[in-house]
Amino acid sequence: MPFDLGAFDAVLLDMDGTLVDTESLWIEAVLGVAADLGADPLDQARLIGGTVASIVAVVGAATGGRHAPADLELWIDQAVKRKVAEVGVRLRPGARRLLDDLIATGTPCALVTSSGRADTELILDVLGRAAFAHTVTADDVPRHKPDPLPYATAAALLGVDPSRCVAIEDSLAGLASAEGAGCTTVAVPHLQDIPDSPRRNVFTSLEMITVTTVKVTR
């Protein structure tokens, strides 16, 4: 049975892995860099939903601290850009229809991502900006997913109580962030298994999510 977002005052959306299939490109790129540096095997679960800084920390630990974090960040960034150039930015199934429906119904909406501002702006060129009243990136908050601050910040920017927001995520870190802020969550697993929990709704695809006319709060 489809899940209707119309019962909520605002919708908060993750980006990587939820709207666009970039999470897998990030992981492939990071694993490639780590392998080239002779790193110990990486725990891929620690890469999903993380910020650039947290991913660099994982690779740095796996390489025994032999490389400066700034160098690791540069190498990972270059590897990700090569991956994106090879395959392009692909939307997750149902993402375009969902965004179009959010625009058509005038639903207050924000993008909440662990990516930095520069990378987010590149993805927004593909997604389009019309659906999002605000975007909260890793550069905009001092604490990141799984901390509740990113989602709490997005709700505040929209002027909506988090308890009246629904957040759509693909990672455990993102879900912990949204749920910690007080949001109801919709999980659409991609690279990570997501268990059921209170106030969490798990679906296999964005295609199972609908938007009816929403009460717009101003």
Question: Could you characterize what this model shows?
Answer:
With 218 residues, the protein is α/β, with parallel strands linked by helices. It has two domains: 3-21 and 91-210, Rossmann fold (3-Layer(aba) Sandwich); 23-87. The chain is 39% helix and 12% strand. It contains seven helices and eight strands. It has helices at residues 23-36, 52-62, 69-87, 95-104, 117-127, 149-158, 172-181; strands at 3-4, 10-13, 109-112, 134-136, 165-169, 184-187, 200-202, 209-210. The protein has a six-stranded parallel beta sheet with strand order 4-3-2-5-6-7, with helices on one face. It has a two-stranded parallel sheet with strand order 1-8. Helix 1 (23-36) crosses helix 3 (69-87) and helix 2 (52-62) crosses helix 3. The chain is globular, with a radius of gyration of 17 Å. The two termini are 31 Å apart. The relative contact order is 0.22. The model has no long low-confidence stretch (mean pLDDT 91).
